[in-house]
């Protein structure tokens, strides 16, 4: 088993992302989260992502499987490790860092 250790923010440009966005109906926060994540995926991960939007009101069974507590929640299934981001995802830099698409800012 050959596993390479990567520092945060150094993900390969050809790495494929599998994302699940859990939302609660059509609330303003849910709609904003969907819009923000789709835009980030189109700009940063063109052709390298799968985004599944799951409405917890319509698919309650997904809650237990995803161990979801709060919606909206974005779950990065792949690449590992699994990561969870909670909220409407309006802080673009936080989302990019959380998904390990860009490196975190250097400490001052």
CATH hierarchy: architecture: 3-Layer(aba) Sandwich
> How many DSSP-defined strands?
4
CATH class: Alpha Beta
For the largest beta-sheet, the strand count, sense and barrel status come to: 4 strands, mixed
Strand order of the largest sheet: 2-1-3-4
Low-confidence parts: 1-11
Distance between the termini: 38 Å
Total of helices: 3
- Total count of domains: 1
Shape: globular
CATH topology-level name:
Glutaredoxin
What's the Cα radius of gyration? 14 Å
Describe the structure concisely:
Helices cover 28% and strands 22% of the residues.
Structure description:
The chain has 108 residues and is an alpha+beta fold. The chain has a single domain, classed as Glutaredoxin (3-Layer(aba) Sandwich), CATH 3.40.30. The protein has three helices and four strands; from the N terminus they run E-H-E-H-E-E-H. The protein has helices at 28-44, 61-66, 92-98, and strands at 17-23, 49-55, 73-78, 83-86. The longest helix has 17 residues, at 28-44. The chain is globular. The termini are far apart. Mean pLDDT is 80; it is low at 1-11.
Topology:
Blueprint: E1 17-23, H1 28-44, E2 49-55, H2 61-66, E3 73-78, E4 83-86, H3 92-98
Parallel strand pairs: 1-2
Antiparallel strand pairs: 1-3, 3-4
